[in-house]
Design brief:
This protein has about 180 residues and is of the alpha+beta class. It has 6 helices and 5 strands. Bound molecules: flavin mononucleotide. Flavin mononucleotide binds near residues 12, 132, 134, 135 and 136.
Length: about 180
């Protein structure tokens, strides 16, 4: 089978990620694959923020700051937030900045950014690494959005965690039939 077709059918996410992460040149390729997401009007609504090394600790502090501002936040939650970005050696925070003065709906621009994330996930797998697309509460807070210069109309679409799978990966088997119909 063609390797692209095989990869697209077998790619799986992995939440247990360790070093090594893609090297600089590989990361550039991954990001360039993101740029090839289908983009109605070529508006380029995507923004990619690379978070690695000590920047991950700084992001953990931002997350912990959000948690600790909530009433009666237990220390365990603060500790969890501090550790979240350390779940992989590399992270790309993907945001959408929709252009609102065009006839292309913001929803389509968001889909373009989602497709960019998927392109990157496939590229990551093709290079022999693994990833997981996460969001969670933190993605939707104004503090975290501001930390990545995301405007009010914009959104954080993905915390894309990237590294090497620490566990064996298994593609789930899914039957095609229940999801497909011939129309008319
Ligand atoms: C927009 C979006 C947000 C997601 N957020 C999370 C998340 O916060 N935590 C999580 O465990 N999985 C999240 N997922 C799902 C995983 O990325 C992954 O797709 C899922 O675990 C199924 O694994 P698979 O990709 O191998 O089928 C999210 C997926 C999408 C598309």
């Amino acid at each position: 089978m063609n390797t692209t077709i095989e990869l697209l059918q077998t790619r799986v996410s992995c939440g247990k990620l360790v070093a090594p992460a893609p090297i600089e040149a590989e990361l550039e390729q991954i990001l360039r694959c993101g740029l090839r997401g289908p983009d109605h009007g070529r508006l380029k609504p995507w923004r990619f923020h690379v978070v690695q090394g000590l920047a991950r600790n700084k992001l953990g502090e931002v997350f912990a700051g959000v948690a600790s501002a909530q009433p009666e936040c237990p220390q365990s939650k603060i500790d969890k937030c501090l550790a979240m970005p350390l779940r992989a050696p590399l992270m790309v925070v993907v945001a959408c900045e929709p252009q609102l003065d065009t006839k292309i709906p913001a929803s389509e621009q968001l889909l373009a950014v989602g497709a960019a994330v998927q392109n990157m996930q496939v590229a990551i797998s093709a290079l022999g690494y693994s990833s997981i697309w996460r969001t969670g509460d933190m993605a939707y807070t104004s503090t975290v959005k501001q930390a990545f210069d995301v405007s009010e109309a914009g959104s954080i679409v993905a915390f894309l965690y990237i590294g090497t799978a620490q566990v064996a990966l298994k593609t789930p088997e899914v039957a095609l039939l229940p999801y497909v119909k011939n129309w008319i």
